[in-house]
Amino acid sequence: MSTQEQKNKRKFRSAGRMREIMTEYYIEAKSASQTGKPVAWITSGGPVEPLIVMDVIPVYPENYGAMIGASHMGSDLCAKAEAMGYSMDLCSYARADIACALENGGPIGGLPKPDMLVCCNNICGTVLKWYEIQARYFNVPLFIFDTPFCHTGFSDAARTYVRKQIDEYIDFLETVCRKKFDLDKSIEVGHRSIQGQRLWQKVLDTATHKPSPMTAFDAFFFLALIVTLRGTQTVVDYYTELLDEMNERIEQGIGAIENERYRILWDNLPIWYRLKWLSEKFASHDACLVADTYTTAWCGTMKYIDENNFIDSMAEAYTRIYLNIGVDEMAESVLGMIDKYEVDGVVMHSNRSCKPYSFGQYDIQQIIQKEKGLPCMMIESHMVDERSFSESQVDARIDAFMEIVSQRK
Amino acid sequence: MRTAGIDIGSITAKAAILDTGKILGTRVSFTGYNVEIAAKKVFEDLLEELGLKAQSIERIVSTGYGRNGVAFAHKAMTEIICHGTGAHYLNPRVRTVIDVGGQDSKALLVDENGAVKDFVMNDKCAAGTGRFLEVMARAMEVNLDDFGALSLNAGSPSKISSICTVFAESEVISLISKGEVRENIIAGIHDSAASRVYAMAQRIGATPPIMMTGGVAKNIGMVRALEKKFNQTIEVSDLAQVNGAIGAAVLAGRL
User: Fold this and answer.
1) Do B124 and A388 touch (CB under 8 A)?
2) pLDDT digits over B109-159, tens only?
3) CB atoms B121 and A393 under 8 Å
4) CA distances for A64 relative to A77, A107, A292, B205, angstroms
5) Judging by DSSP bridges, how do beta strands A345-351 and A287-292 pair with one another?
6) What total of structural domains would you count in chain A?
7) Can you name the residues that pair with B118 across neighbouring β-strands?
8) What is the pLDDT at residue A1?
9) Chain-wide mean pLDDT for chain A?
């Protein structure tokens, strides 16, 4: 088989459908002002299911941030935000989004104007100020869903506190949308959300197979649906299809990279503007990034959800996500993934944009080395702001890291 | 078997030739803007100096930032592995290598077989690198070769708190204008660079014996400042600057 044929064989059939769904989704969102459907901007870790129940179109500035990064528009937009007075040390999603709103620029000509904003601080503290700024700019109501940080465990006080806010959230939606919250529908949406999360986890689990049918770079792409349309039938149908394709690949022995010799775990957000470069770089070392802590975050708290009581139990699930727990618990989850996916090394993206994700990485690295004796490497960068990426340094580090990984094997 | 290692750094190009594990000779020259020419030149000059023909070298490994630009090398390897291998070749007891070069600094742990167990490199910042010392020497109007030695004559080292090269330079200039003793400022500069390197090395748990390699190992002020931080002696070979090239030549023998 020629190299081109082999490459074609490794391409995903489902990728085209995914692009179609995302295009339809953005067209629907962009034409909301004509169709009369309300639009809510929501943070990536926010409880989206109540919006689906209320027929509100959820729009994710963070998903848009990833698009900005992947289309190499990040540096310009970040620089524009800096010219507006925002610090270079701020999250590059926030900077890019704030600049975009003002310019109506960016990919797809900017996001549709929001009718309301929903901000959940389970992913970081930056979103609070970011959403306050946007609420003032667009002059729309803002709901803040406050999830206390879970240093260890989840207290009853926290449970009561967060649960109470779900009622407030529903009240907020009823007021803004001027209609009642349909409880029966919320049960359906809850089921579909759980179903979607289960399927997404199953898709990710196929990477335990050797050779892995997918890489983390593929997961970064396929992730968009579980983030944006969680709770809809579209997600359930799509991931059922995708899972079938992964299983077919396993049956046919199709690996995601040509010659998988080493299996690597990725930590933190992707470097959106360098996905291709990084993916080729690792593949050139016969290294497959089989798993990552990032895409798992959208199915990592299923254990806390009671399928028959979604609305009540989502309080705990949304509070205990990966970025809102202590370093020990994070490390435990990383160690679990190391075993599950049988990895030979860990690559950590020390992401200047995402402080809560990057802050404990040196500790986690030490725990990994102590418990598993695995090589770890750090790449310092920003997920969207290309000015922070230094190719020759990263190149040398990956080469050295892979030399060590191969020496050990 | 005769092998060669070519180490193309950001400032200097180094070459080493080994014959069945014995060093025949080493050479250092400036890199300039063309990696390929710099690599060829340092290699050919060394061959001429040793009276050898290029055909007599069986295997060549390139390393350093310019490693992928050395077309005549059989393989390119990173400076991490090469410095680890080089240090192990010079002294097999060494367990930590601190390599401070022109634009980066790194620390690596080496096991009893010379294999690198872990490494850490400076991030996007020139503090704690050769370039930092170069900029400071220029600000102090001192020849780089005398810079380290002068720091040893300090009564009480000045405190340089900025970690950024550019800001540290303005801090140095303000100390000069305040009339601070030159040697004290120079000692302060070395302390500041050593603190950066020390903190980085601690991240991987540097264990003795420690060897320092790379061009900055020639700076006695930096070596002493690091010894103070680590509270132990740091070994520096006469071949510290060409250690990466030696490691590359050793690894070439294993191809």
Assistant:
1) yes
2) 999 999 999 999 887 777 788 889 999 999 999 998 899 999 999 999 999
3) yes
4) 13, 8, 21, 41
5) unpaired
6) 2
7) B109
8) 62
9) 95
According to the model, what pLDDT value does residue B71 have?
95
pLDDT along chain B (255 residues), means of 10: 95 95 96 93 97 96 94 95 96 96 90 92 80 91 92 92 81 92 95 92 92 94 96 96 97 95
CB contacts of B116 in chain A (<8 Å) are 400, 403-404, 407
Last residue of a domain, one of A154, A184, A214: A184
DSSP state, residue B34: -
Half-sphere exposure of residue A316, counting CA atoms within 13 Å on the CB side? 18
* Shortest Cα distance, chain B CAs vs residue A404, angstroms: 6
With an 8 Å Cβ cutoff, are A404 and B116 in contact? yes
Same domain, B151 and B162: yes
* Domain CATH for B244: 3.30.420.40
CATH code of the domain in which A334 resides: 3.40.50.11900
Domain boundary among A164, A184, A204: A184
A142-197: per-residue pLDDT in tens? 999 999 999 998 999 999 999 999 999 999 999 999 999 999 999 999 999 999 99
For residue B183, the enclosing domain spans: 92-236
Same domain, A387 and A346: yes
Q: What is the mean pLDDT of residues A260-285?
A: 97
Closest by CA position to A52, among listed A32, A37, A65: A37
Between these two residues, A129 and A105, which has the higher pLDDT value?
Answer: A129
- According to DSSP, residue B157 is labeled P
Looking at the fold, whether A34 and A117 belong to one and the same domain comes out as yes
CA distance B51 to chain A (A): 34
Question: What range does the domain containing A370 cover?
Answer: 193-408
Tell me the Cα Rg of chain A. 21
Quick one: tokens of A30? 């962009």
**Residues 6 or more apart in contact with residue B176 via CB below 8 angstroms:** B139, B140, B182, B185
Q: Which residues contact B194 (CB under 8 A, 6 or more apart)?
A: B128, B222, B225, B226, B228, B229
- Judge: B124–A393 Cβ closer than 8 Å, yes or no: yes
